[in-house]
Amino acid sequence: MSALFPAGLRPGPGRERRQGEDGDQLARTLRQRLLGSSLLYLSVTLAVLVVGFSIAAPGSFLTVYNIRTMLTVASVLLVVSVGSTFVIATAGIDLSVGSVLVFAGVVSIKAMDAVGGGGAGAVLVGLAAALLAGLVWGTINGLLVARLRVPPLIATLGSMGVALGIAELVTNGSDLNGVPTALFTTIGLGRLFGVVPWIVVIAAAVTIGAWIALTRTRFGLRTLFIGSNSEASRRSGIDVTRHLIMVYALAGTLAGLAGFLDLALYASANIAGHTNDNLQAVTAVVLGGTSLFGGTASILGTVIGVFIPAVLQNGFVIVRVQTFWQEVVIGLVLVFAVYLDQLKRSALERF
């Protein structure tokens, strides 16, 4: 010891004890961060599922074609779920996103049919119509919740019924076909550099933009602040009413975009094909670590929360598990994932 430290600077018993305490504190902090990371649990769960299905169906599950198909189908739900993440971060909920998606698809296909032709002009008109339809419904939801003080569950439940009902009235309850060729062949079937489907690229761009908005902008900070304590936010000078309207309008607009992507993917407006999208979106958001009580949100968690059920459904189809067993196992996995989250919270309390 004397050879390492000059006289007067040799660590005494007190300094050694402090160094030991600092090391324990560092290790404790590291453990807290690992245990507190919902993304860690979700990532491990997703990795285990991928490895399991790869072993169960070698040569079928982990193929380029299957991965591309899985990503494409999940991208539509991801766009919807990203919008729901902002709503739930404010301690609200939007049950109308599935119906708004259908309504926007119907409006879009009607607009493209009215313009006529199968070129890029008709596609742009259809995109604008879908976004506008989603924006209108989202704004209505925001006004009901923020201005008229209708509970979000009741307001969006009513919007869900009205939006789907209008779509069924317009279409007589039947699916609509007649999507322009340019939409189906480019966005629907097209790929960036011949590899990545355009729908996946668009969904990724939306997700990255949402992550930046939530974590790097005043809009995201205020969203989380309002979700933590709306009254404190109001007293601190934030226009809570205006912000909530903007958040619901954002969610509606993204649901409209999802309706347009769904048109491009399936070349038709499927009236009865999105009845569970609202619950799937809420499940993905909550599974991803966003609190139903507001104030905490994770866009990356939502991404993983979308893909865990997607991998399960895709894998079960490949290994030929019966449909009703798929629902049972998916429900059990979701409950297990939430249980892991509770274990994490308990572990954090012990530290």
What is the element layout, followed by pairings?
Elements: H1 13-35, H2 38-56, H3 64-89, H4 97-115, H5 120-147, H6 152-171, H7 181-188, E1 191-192, E2 196-197, H8 198-216, H9 218-228, H10 230-235, H11 240-266, H12 277-287, H13 299-318, H14 323-350
Antiparallel strand pairs: 1-2
Helix pairs in contact: 2-13, 2-14, 3-8, 3-9, 3-11, 3-12, 3-13, 4-5, 4-6, 4-11, 5-6, 5-11, 7-11, 8-9, 9-11, 12-13, 13-14
Secondary-structure element series: HHHHHHHEEHHHHHHH
- What is the 3D form? globular
Beta-strand share of residues = under 5%
Strand order of the largest sheet: 1-2
Mean of all residue-level pLDDT scores: 85
The description of the largest β-sheet is:
2 strands, antiparallel
Overall structural class, as computed from helix and strand content, comes to: mainly alpha
C-alpha-based Rg, rounded = 24 Å
Q: Kindly state the percentage of residues in helix.
A: over 70%
Uncertain segments:
1-9
Number of beta-strand segments: 2
Q: Termini separation (Å)?
A: 34 Å
Count of alpha and pi helical runs: 14
Give an account of the 3D structure:
With 351 residues, the protein is mainly alpha-helical. It has 14 helices and 2 strands, in the order αααααααββααααααα. It has helices spanning 13-35, 38-56, 64-89, 97-115, 120-147, 152-171, 181-188, 198-216, 218-228, 230-235, 240-266, 277-287, 299-318, 323-350, and strands spanning 191-192, 196-197. Helix 3 runs parallel beside helix 8 (198-216) and helix 4 (97-115) crosses helix 11 (240-266). The radius of gyration is 24 Å and the shape is globular. The two termini are 34 Å apart.
